Amino acid sequence: MAQINENYSKLQASYLFSDIAKRVNRFAEENPDQPIIKMGIGDVTEPLPEVCRKAIHDAVDEMGTRTGFHGYGPEQGYAFLREAIAENDYSPRGCEIKPSEIFVSDGSKCDSGNIQEIFSESAKVAIPDPVYPVYVDTNVMGGRTGQNVNGRYEGLVYLESTPDNGYVPSPPEEAVDLIYLCFPNNPTGACATREQLQEWVDYARRNKAIILYDAAYVAFIRDPEVPHSIYEIGGARECAIEFRSFSKNAGFTGTRCAFTVVPEELFAYDSAGEKVSINKLWNRRHTTKFNGVSYPVQRGAAAIYSPEGKKEVKTLTDFYMENAAIIHKTMTELGFSCVGGTNAPYVWIKIDGSSWDFFDELLHKTGIVCTPGAGFGTCGEGHFRLSAFNTRENVEKAMTLIKEHFGK
Ligand code: MLT
């Protein structure tokens, strides 16, 4: 008799964004004439940059020739992309990352979800609250938690991100083995300072812990003082893995390309207490379970590092940041207290009462979809998130509707 992995029974019924999509679809069926503006999931709306389209077209044409055809590529990604990433994303910020430390993949959701499986089932895991739900759910699946009691899983260490700490948690008193951090943060939009990240790196090195650093939103940082990579912090090569994505900077949510950096100095320990290279272990996992991102898509991703590509990415991310500024300004003028939206494409807004009730009210009264804070964790209660990934027309329309509904 086939039996399921019982850890799956501990999960909430459905993944947050699937749950929201279901509610919105039900509402749309019941209210077919009501226009809906989706500001929930952070999915991009603007077309792929021209440089990427051209590079993808050219690569497809190349694939149609005997000499330019590509079969299986290197699982870790083609050298042209790994080299471009190291040279453009890391060297200019003083971080020495080798192409051999970069693993190209089809998404940061997959990478940040899959990484846990190379670590012990008994690893003690710290996660921020509120949090991108993938980090929690994949550790539940991996058997590192007990049951969910009142919205929190037994066995996890929750790092509370609240108005009191500016939504940037400090290291806990107790020792943990794995720490998830995400800056610019999803969902709050908060950024950690150099000093705050140094505290985390020092903590991780003291405890021989590993930081899993999600930097998927780095392209939206506008303040030059804000660290762009965990590797800008002294000692991070010995204690951190970094996840990055082409989804949000270059509009690749439907095209799929991302990468993970695993430095050669990073080690964890086997049961005999011997050091094991995490780069080698991840390479083993990646080459076993993944066959690489398609050649045309990697060519498209590499194109963003050309001078023209850099300009297009800046224009694209500036566009979304202007949306974020419009949202932030409107909500602030209406008297809401907001964070985010200045170095991140999410605006995190405080409310009184239940965020799911607020979600329903907003949807039913205005047709606007937000993400209820409680969906990201207990500390998300009393907040909701608006995504700046939308057309200008939709953002302006949504702000007019919100003003009509909440204005005095
Ligand atoms: C979000 O809305 O939090 C993100 O778009 C989800 C994701 O990137 O997977």
From TrEMBL:
Domain Aminotransferase class I/classII large residue range list: 36-400
Name listed for the protein in its UniProt record: LL-diaminopimelate aminotransferase
Record field: catalytic activity: (2S,6S)-2,6-diaminopimelate + 2-oxoglutarate = (S)-2,3,4,5-tetrahydrodipicolinate + L-glutamate + H2O + H(+)
UniProt xrefs under PANTHER family: AMINOTRANSFERASE
Top-level class of the enzyme under EC nomenclature: transferase
Highest taxon above the source species: Bacteria
Cofactors, names only: pyridoxal 5'-phosphate
Species: Oceanipulchritudo coccoides
NCBIfam families given in the database record: DAPAT_plant
BP term (GO), one: lysine biosynthetic process via diaminopimelate
InterPro entries: Aminotransferase_I/II_large, DapL/ALD1, PyrdxlP-dep_Trfase, PyrdxlP-dep_Trfase_major, PyrdxlP-dep_Trfase_small
Enzyme Commission no: 2.6.1.83
